[in-house]
Amino acid sequence: MAGPGVTGGRLSPVFPTVREVLALDPVRRGAPRLVAGETGLDRPVRWVHVTEVPDIATLLGGGELVLTTGIGLPADDVGLRAFIGDLVAVGVSGLVVELGRRYPTEVPRVMAVAAARRGLPLVELRRPTPFVRITEAVHALIVDAQLHELRAAEEIHQRFTELSVEGAGTAEVVRQAAALAGCPVVLENLSRQVLAYDPAGENAELLLDGWEQHSRRLRPAGRTAYDSDSGWLVTTVGARGQDWGRLLLRWPARAGLGDGRPVGAPPTRLTILVERAASTLALGRLIRRDAEGLERQLHHTLLTALLDHSRPVDEIALRARALGVPLDRRHLVGVMVRLRRDTPAESGAPGEGGPAEAGPARLRDLAEAVGQALREAKLTGLTSPVDDQAVGVLLALPEAAAEDRALAAFAAALRRRHPDQPARVLVAAGSGVASLREVRRSLVEARQVAEAARRDSRDLPVFRLPHVGLAGLLHLLRDEPRLQTFVERELGALLAHDAQHPREQLLGTLRAYLEQGRNKSAGAVAAHLSRPAFYERLARIGRILGVDLDSVEACLSLHVALLALDAIRTP
Asked: Per the database record, which ranges form the Purine catabolism PurC-like domain (predicted)?
């Protein structure tokens, strides 16, 4: 159930609108009549100010509803126009004039025309009304709304605390944030790729269309800031000094005043909400990581403990020896056997024989086949599934010279059990090590090679690191925030330029230059540009990035960043 300050799951407004003020009993007793500015009736009223002097604008801060009898207002048309202009300039919400003392039957036409032209709500009170009754009623409403604001902030903290305790996933946190705010919410990584979103009832395709370019135009100052030009409230997501994304909430500038800030600025509760949601996302990521480590420590095998450093290596060696797998004074090689991404088990839809049903069964079959292949090849080692797609193996060999022979024997035995291995299964191996303390490096390398080679169509018995190359390694590391930070540091300025000038796309020019080995003539041909135009673009790229494109070292760094960007953008 929604608490105070929340209506139907959505946060209530902070201030009453001009329309709501006109509906109050003390105002209705004055027989109000709207003369001009109907389009501004939904402006929030931050305060009520009574005045009888024309130069009151200098004492106002915006958002006030001004009450007057008009006795001190200018008598000439120029003065009245200036009075209305001054009120609009400071951002008042509306002007209420009581008839009878200065204006017997109606406000001057010049005042009505000026208010209509500037969109300022102008209201006549046709019966005498004590202004104190109006101010009391409106201020009571404002105080009550501010109390609701505090309660809404408390509701935000309670809601996200519950989500943290329940271990809610990323999508649920984003959904709750959008539901509370009633606004679209998007979570992106450092490369401006959308990780989760909730359109809050709006068109999702329009919301996400051209997201990366749109997001790169948002450069708010500080960890949390509002970009008034685009209407996005942005906060950084991360913990322990490691930022890994941004959470964005759309609050269009046409939304009106809030908290006394300029027109369109989001109210304080939304800043609280987006920051609380971001901290919940960051905390959830840390908790899930710790929970998985604990789960591995309690339920996974010694192989998983080695991979994740969740147990001391001396304890692992002792337990492994008790299992009949001596790891001391052995040459150790990490191996990963995994299903390729394009296997039938991964192409089906859930509930139709897809991964939800066939995946675990296929992995169990693969793990059994790996164990049998080890026995058939007369090899000793630890083996276990390490994730939803891969079975890990730690080979314990008597000497380093036996490494190639042992891997070939294992791959051959597995192939005999999986004749269609090249189409379904691949084997990847890391570098051999001589110490159990180094074995994680071999296992991680094997996992990296397996990840990078999963789309490789070559029929290799065993994939090793030289087979996948730099592009494959970067593809594996595409979700690593440090790699994304490197790409942003090297190419961010150019990507931002291309986002602002979509017809130029200087990134393609840089790519052609680097892929042609820094040969400008060949690069111009590849880019379909004349040599002068190509040279001019290269000069502009150098200025934007602040680098010398004739420098081998600078170009190498840019080329790696380009390859990393391709890996990040490739699903």
From this structure: 20-142
